[in-house]
C-alpha cells in the first residue's frame, strides 16, 4: 500500500478532549505526530481533511469474530444451538471454498469500516485468504487459524497456523498479527492442546480461544477433567503464551483469580451471548480485578452484524440492568473497552487512543444528526445515542480508507453481489 | 395539511411478503388501497416513488416516551435514579417553558422520522405545544398530560388533560389520540387517581401510566395499600377505561393475570430499564397470556435515543439471554411488537401492517448496505442486522414526510440550533 506521508485533519473535535474545542490533528506516515490548537508546522503540503462538526474517536476494535461467516447472515436464526450448528451452520460451512472466505471477509471488512471498526480479531479457516483481504483493504487485524483437534487433519491445521504466523505475523506494515486458534475445550483434546501450546511457545505466539461460552461446556469439562476450562488451560501452561479468551460467560471466582494472575484477556460478546441464550459474562467482576476486557460481535450468524458501537452500548446498559447498579460500566469506560482495551487484548500496544505516538486509527463521526443534540456530553452521545453509521471518515494506520461515507478502495457493489451469490450457493 | 390524492410505490419489496418479490403499493389519500404485482389501474396520474432495492416496513411505533426531554439528552448519565432526578433532571425541568417543549419535541420528531418511527406515545406537559408539533410535522401520536397529584395545581393539570382531549382527540386527520396521563402510583394519591378515572370514564378516554417500573415502587405501594400497583389500579377500576401501562418490570403472576383479564396493554422499554438498573420486564410471560405488548424508548435522558429498531433488537435478544431459551421472541414476533402490537397498544386500530385498508404509515429501508447481505431472510436482516438510519423514505397517513433521507417539511438546522441553545440554557 502507498502512504501519503502527511495528513492533517483540521477543525476537529476529539472525544478525549474537552467539549467544543477544535484541534489540528497531524499524522506522519502511520502515526499521530501532533495534536494542537494552532496550525502545526511541517504540514504545509499535507493532505487536508476539514472535519467541521465531526468528532475524532479512536477506531473501534472488534476482539472476536469469524468474518467470512457473514455469508450465512440471516440464514438461520432463532434456533437452539446444537440444532443450529448441526443442521444449518456446519452443513453450509462444509461447502465453503477459499474464494467464498475471501469474499465473505471482504463483505465483513466493508461493514466494519463503514461502522467505525478499524481492527478485528478473526478466527476461521483459509486464513491466508483473510490475510490477503486485510492486506488489500488496509484494515488492521489479529488472525488465528481455528484449530479443531478432533478431525484427522488436526495436525495439518496446526501447520496451517504455523505457516500463517510465519507468513503474516507483523506484516502488512505491522497491521497484521497472528495468534494460534485452538477452537474450544470441547473440540480440542488435551493431547492436541499440548501440541498447540508447545508450537505457540516455540514461536513466541499468543493464543485466541473460545472459553467458557456455555454452562454445558463448563460442566462437561469439569466432568471429564475435574477442572473448569480455565483451570484446565492453566494446567497446560496455555496462559503463559498470552491468551485472548472469547466469551468467558461462565467463570467462577477462582477462574477469575487465575485469569487476573495470568493476564488472560477477554473478548466480551454481549449480543451473541444473549442471542444464543448463553448468558451474560461477569464483566464488572473482571474489570474490578484489572482483567483486560475488549468487546466483540462474534460471527454474524449469531449477532447478526459487526456493529461494535452497538456492543459498546449494550455492554454499558446490560451490566447495569442485571446487577441493579446504574453506576456500572459508565459511558467513558465502555468506550475504553471498545478501543484501547480491545487493542491491548489483541496485542497492539500503540493503538486505541488519539494521542501523539499512537498509530493513526481514527474515525470521524458526523454529528449533524438529531441524536447528537443537544451537545451536553460527547462521550455520552457517542456511547448511548449515536449510530455506527455516523462514521464518515475512517483512517487506519495513517491511510484514509473511507471519506464522506464512501470506501475509497473497495468495490462494494462487486462485494455485495459476490457475497449474495455465494451465500445463496452455500445454503441451497 | 394537504394530501396528494394518489401515491404509487413501485418495484418495492414488502417485509411481510415472500423475499425477492416486487410489488406496486398504491395509496389513496391516507390509506393503502392496493398491493399488486401488476401496475394497478387508477394510478396513472399518481405521484410515483421508485423503491428499487428498498423494502417497505410498517412504520415503527414508540409506545412510551417524553419527547421534549430530548433537550436533556447526555446532560446526566450513569447516576443513581434519585440522585439523577433530584439533582439533575427535576431542577433542569423546572426551567422548561412552552417554547422549549415545542423545540424539544420537534427535535424528537425529526429523530423519530429519520429512524423509521411514524407513531409515538408521549406523556409530558405543555402538551398543546406537543400537539402543535405533531399536527405540523405530520407524524402520528397518542398524547397524554403527565398528571402528578401531589402538587397544589393537581386539579389544573387534570383540567389541562381534559382540554387536551377535547381539543385534539381524533384531530389532525385522525393522527392524534389523547389519553389521560396519571404519572405513577408514587406521585398520585388514591383520591386523585379516583378523579382521573372518573374524568376519563366520563369522556370515554383511555389512560397511560407508569406502572411497576422499579422494585421500590412496588414494595412501597404494597406497604401503603397492601396491594401491588396493578391490584390497586384494578381496585380503582382504572383498567376498565383501557390502560397503557409503561414498564411493568416488577409484576407478579397474579398481576399478570389481572392484566390479561383487563386487557391492560404494556409499553416495554428494555433499554431504559437496563440503563436505570430497574430490571427486565417478564415479556415472554405477558405474551404467553395474550397481553398486548408494544415497545418504547422512554425519554432520551434515560436511553439516550429514540431508535425503536434498537429496542426491537434488544427485546429479541435480551429475553433469550436471561431465560436461556434461544427460541423466545423470534425476529418476526419482535417486529410485530414494534409495529402492529404497538399501534394496538396506543388504540390505533388500522395502523401497523402493510395491508389494504390500513393507514399508510410506511418506511422504505435502503438495503444497499453491507449488513443487508446476503439476503437469506429480510425480517432477520431488519431485526438483527440493519441500522435505523437505513430509513430512506417515510410516509405517514399517506403523506411523504421524508425522501432520500431528507425531511421534506422540517427545517432540521433550525431545530438542531434551537434544541442545542435551549438544552444548554436549561442546564446552566
TrEMBL record, chains A, B:
> Does the keyword section mention Zinc?
yes
Give binding positions for Zn(2+).
Answer: 64, 66, 210, 298
Query: What keywords were assigned to this record?
Result: Hydrolase, Metal-binding, Zinc
Cofactors: Zn(2+)
A Pfam family (short name) is Amidohydro_1
Q: What reaction(s) does this enzyme catalyze?
A: S-methyl-5'-thioadenosine + H2O + H(+) = S-methyl-5'-thioinosine + NH4(+); S-adenosyl-L-homocysteine + H2O + H(+) = S-inosyl-L-homocysteine + NH4(+)
Entry cofactor note text?
Answer: Binds 1 zinc ion per subunit.
The record's EC number reads 3.5.4.28, 3.5.4.31
One GO MF term, please? S-adenosylhomocysteine deaminase activity
* Function noted in UniProt: Catalyzes the deamination of 5-methylthioadenosine and S-adenosyl-L-homocysteine into 5-methylthioinosine and S-inosyl-L-homocysteine, respectively. Is also able to deaminate adenosine.
By sequence similarity, the record places it as follows: Belongs to the metallo-dependent hydrolases superfamily. MTA/SAH deaminase family.
Task: Supply the name of the protein.
Answer: 5-methylthioadenosine/S-adenosylhomocysteine deaminase
Q: What is the lineage of its organism?
A: Bacteria, Bacillati, Bacillota, Negativicutes, Acidaminococcales
Amino acid at each position: 500500500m502507498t502512504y501519503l506521508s502527511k495528513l492533517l485533519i483540521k477543525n476537529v473535535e476529539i472525544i478525549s478532549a474537552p467539549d467544543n474545542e477544535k484541534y489540528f490533528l497531524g499524522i506522519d506516515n502511520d502515526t499521530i505526530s501532533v495534536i494542537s490548537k494552532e496550525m502545526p508546522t511541517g504540514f504545509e503540503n499535507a493532505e487536508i481533511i476539514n472535519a467541521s462538526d465531526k468528532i475524532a474517536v479512536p477506531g473501534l476494535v472488534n476482539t472476536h469474530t469469524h468474518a467470512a461467516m457473514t455469508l450465512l447472515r440471516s440464514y438461520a436464526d432463532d434456533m437452539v444451538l446444537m440444532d443450529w450448528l448441526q443442521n444449518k451452520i456446519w452443513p453450509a460451512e462444509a461447502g465453503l471454498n477459499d474464494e467464498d472466505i475471501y469474499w465473505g471477509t471482504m463483505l465483513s471488512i466493508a461493514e466494519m469500516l463503514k461502522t467505525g471498526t478499524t481492527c478485528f480479531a478473526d478466527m476461521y479457516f483459509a486464513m491466508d485468504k483473510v490475510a490477503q483481504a486485510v492486506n488489500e483493504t488496509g484494515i488492521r487485524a489479529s488472525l488465528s487459524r481455528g484449530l479443531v483437534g478432533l478431525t484427522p487433519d488436526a495436525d495439518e491445521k496446526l501447520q496451517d497456523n504455523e505457516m500463517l504466523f510465519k507468513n503474516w505475523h507483523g506484516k502488512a506494515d505491522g497491521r497484521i498479527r497472528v495468534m494460534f486458534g485452538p477452537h474450544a475445550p470441547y473440540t480440542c483434546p488435551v493431547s492436541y492442546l499440548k501440541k498447540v501450546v508447545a508450537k505457540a511457545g516455540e514461536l513466541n505466539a499468543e493464543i485466541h480461544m473460545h472459553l467458557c461460552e456455555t454452562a454445558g461446556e463448563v460442566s462437561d469439562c469439569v466432568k471429564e477433567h475435574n477442572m473448569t476450562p480455565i483451570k484446565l488451560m492453566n494446567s497446560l501452561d496455555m496462559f503463559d503464551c498470552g491468551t485472548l479468551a472469547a466469551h468467558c460467560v461462565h467463570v467462577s471466582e477462582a477462574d477469575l483469580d487465575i485469569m487476573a494472575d495470568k493476564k488472560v484477556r477477554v473478548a466480551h460478546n454481549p449480543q451473541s451471548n444473549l442471542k444464543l441464550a448463553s448468558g451474560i459474562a461477569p464483566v464488572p467482576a473482571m474489570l474490578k480485578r484489572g482483567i483486560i476486557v475488549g468487546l466483540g460481535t462474534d460471527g454474524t450468524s449469531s449477532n447478526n452484524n459487526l456493529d461494535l458501537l452497538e456492543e459498546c452500548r449494550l455492554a454499558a446498559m446490560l451490566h447495569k440492568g442485571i446487577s441493579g447498579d446504574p453506576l456500572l460500566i459508565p459511558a467513558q469506560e465502555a468506550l475504553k473497552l471498545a478501543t484501547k482495551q480491545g487493542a491491548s487484548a489483541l496485542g497492539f500496544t500503540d493503538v486505541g487512543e488519539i494521542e501523539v505516538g499512537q498509530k493513526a486509527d481514527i474515525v470521524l463521526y458526523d454529528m449533524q444528526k438529531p441524536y447528537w443534540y443537544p451537545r451536553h456530553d460527547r462521550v455520552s452521545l457517542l456511547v448511548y445515542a449515536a449510530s455506527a453509521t455516523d462514521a464518515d471518515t475512517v483512517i487506519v494506520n495513517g491511510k484514509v480508507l473511507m471519506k464522506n461515507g464512501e470506501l475509497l478502495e473497495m468495490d462494494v457493489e462487486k462485494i455485495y453481489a459476490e457475497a449474495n451469490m455465494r451465500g445463496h450457493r452455500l445454503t441451497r
